[in-house]
Structure formats: C-alpha cells, structure tokens
Design goal:
This protein is of the alpha/beta class. Strands 1, 2, 3, 4, 5 and 6 form a 6-stranded mixed beta sheet that branches. The protein is built from 8 helices and 6 strands, in the order H-E-E-E-E-H-H-E-H-E-H-H-H-H. Strand 2 and strand 3 form a beta hairpin. About 45% of the residues lie in helices and about 15% in strands. Helix 3 crosses helix 4 and helix 5 runs parallel beside helix 8. The chain has one domain: Nucleotidyltransferase, domain 5.
C-alpha cells in the first residue's frame, strides 16, 4: 500500500515536472532519473567572495557517499578560472592564487563535468544555500533551470538532533545551538580539516552526514 503524498510532497512533484519541461538541454535529462538507493554526493565550492551576483566559483569538490562509506578515491575536484581577478582577501581565505587557477576550467565546462558526476543523487553539504546558489549560477545557462537534485544540509539534521535532546523548557525557550562547523564536528567526535578548502569541507560535511544518520537511526 502506497503512502499518500503530503501537500509538500505534491508541491515537490509538481515543481519537478515543471522543471523537467523547462530543461533546455535534453542531454541532462538524467538529472530527473530516480537516484540510486542510499547514495548521496557531498559538495563544497570556494569562491572569489560572498556576493552571489558578482563573485565566481574557483573550485568545486564532490565526494560520493554510498550507504555509510565515503568514496573519496572517486571524488571530483575541479579548479575554475574566474573571469575577474582575485582579491588579496579571497586569496587569504582559500589560499588559491591566480597562478594556481591559470589552467583551470572555464565555468561552463566545469558545470557540465559537475552535472555528469552528480547525476540525480541528492546533494549534501554544510550551509548548502550559498554553495547551491553559486553552482546554480553556472548551471542555469546550460540547463535553463536550477539544480533539481534534492539538497540536504547537515546543519538542519544536526539542529533537529540536538533540539530533540533538550528538556522541554529549553525547547520552548528557543535554545541556542552552536552550528559552527568546528563545534559541530567536535560535538560529533569527528576530525576537523583545514577549512575553506573545497575537498576538506565536502569531506567534513560527508562525515557529519554519515554520523548523524547513524545517531538518528539509533534513537
């Protein structure tokens, strides 16, 4: 017996069908296929800044997750050559210089490689809203739509997990839960990598996702 769809479920289904109709290049129709069971892709990107409209992606990392295993040997790592120069501040943050990006891909080529790599699998990350917005910026000209893949933010899973452990009086008081990456990793007893590196951040998000899945299942 199938479970009836909720209002949210119907909305997601209708949105997905609408996106499929708008898809500009049918080469990428695989994005709407059913994803493989128990598979996800952890993602992260580094950028020239934090302004989605003005700044550009300079590196992308994507790590497959299958069941509870991180397939780091099968990861995707791309350097992207920006059209504009790098500021000194952005170099200090992500430690990528103009010379490091000289042989990088153009944004369109990087977008196509990324799309073929992720397929229809759900995307996992830490505070994914910004990363997805930046990726949508380079895939939209190709697809004519934003990424249709389901998106999972480990912050939301972690917040719900910690919130349910609080006593009722703290829940009603909107208790403050520390969602900083380093705090989240420490609380989950997971190793922290050097931040502002696309591969390191994607790997930490993947580790947190797998650990949180195990913790939620055990409750």
């Amino acid at each position: 017996m199938t479970t009836p769809l909720t209002i949210q479920g119907w909305y997601r289904l209708l949105k997905r069908e609408y996106q499929k109709r708008l898809l500009r290049d049918k080469e990428f129709s695989f994005l709407f296929e059913d994803p493989p069971a128990n598979e996800w892709i952890a993602i992260d990107c580094e950028t020239t800044g934090l302004d989605v409209r003005r700044d550009e992606i300079i590196s992308i990392a994507a790590i497959p997750i299958k069941n509870s295993a991180l397939l780091t040997s099968e990861r995707l790592e791309l350097l992207v050559k920006p059209k504009q120069g790098l500021s000194a501040q952005s170099v200090r943050v992500h430690r990528l210089r103009a010379c490091d990006l000289e042989q990088g891909l153009d944004a369109q080529t990087a977008a196509k490689e990324f799309l073929h790599f992720i397929g229809s699998r759900p995307l996992v990350g830490y505070y994914t809203e910004f990363d997805i917005a930046m990726i949508n910026k380079i895939v939209y000209p190709i697809l004519g739509i934003r990424l249709p893949n389901p998106q999972i933010d480990v912050c939301n899973i972690y917040y719900d997990y910690k919130f349910k452990q609080l006593p009722p009086y703290q829940q009603y008081a909107n208790a403050d839960i520390d969602l900083r990456f380093v705090s989240l990793m420490s609380d989950l007893d997971l190793p922290s990598r050097h931040g502002h590196d696309a591969f390191n951040d994607a790997e930490m998000a993947a580790l947190a996702f797998v650990k949180l899945q195990e913790l939620v299942r055990s409750k």
